[in-house]
Fold:
Amino acid sequence: MTDANDEATSEEVVRGTFAQVDAWHSSPRFSAAPGSELFKDDQDWLPMPFTDSVKLELDLAAEQLHQIKVVVEADEVSLTSQRILVRTALISGSIALWMISPDAAADRTSRHRLLVEQTHFRHHQALSEQVGLEERAGSVQPNLARMLEHTTTRLDEVKALRAADGQTTRWNDTDIIRAAALYAFGKEPDPQALANEAVFEFRVTSGAAHGLPWALYNSAGMRATTSTDQHGRAVMTAQPMWSDLANGYMAAYWVSYSAWKLLARRGR
Structure:
């Protein structure tokens, strides 16, 4: 059970990030300075340069964090909806930090190639489904067919580039979040414990993201309103709690914060 002091602290911590979130959410496109580390990284895959990929992930994270701010300021914090926003913010911020955190350029570009491959792979899946729908309807838009062809070409190109360099790592959200959290919390007394918490938040928010109620079970706002019956059942109610929001939100915030700092440092 969470007490009133915990709730007040959790609310204060979350609200204390909103000015920074606003700045991120309204930030313009970032271009790496000629001669900088990121400018060199950008040359590895020109169709979607490294810097643009990192900034896009940070923009995606900032959008989710901003939407949480909107929900909070409207006093509309809910049981599950903000968990989906937290999950997306945590994933996007972690991808950005995972890409930009290695000091070795080869490691950064290797991770970027993996992101590009995953992006084209998922886009190709969606476009293939859309083409199938239009074929069954009797007419495929010419621009859609060209987009699918283009995506296929890019996917084959990045696969070949990775294969030529012996890059065999597969995409794994959990590994990316753990690596990002270990970097973001690297100077804390127990980075591994905090990384474990970040991964836990990724796991627990999946219930809401996939329409399953289990993430509410044993949550801070869940209470039994009756005694148990002969089958061990009781009527349960749940209410939104700041402590349910704060940990995952702050994990997403701090991985994004670390990535923004590296974007500025490596891009200048």
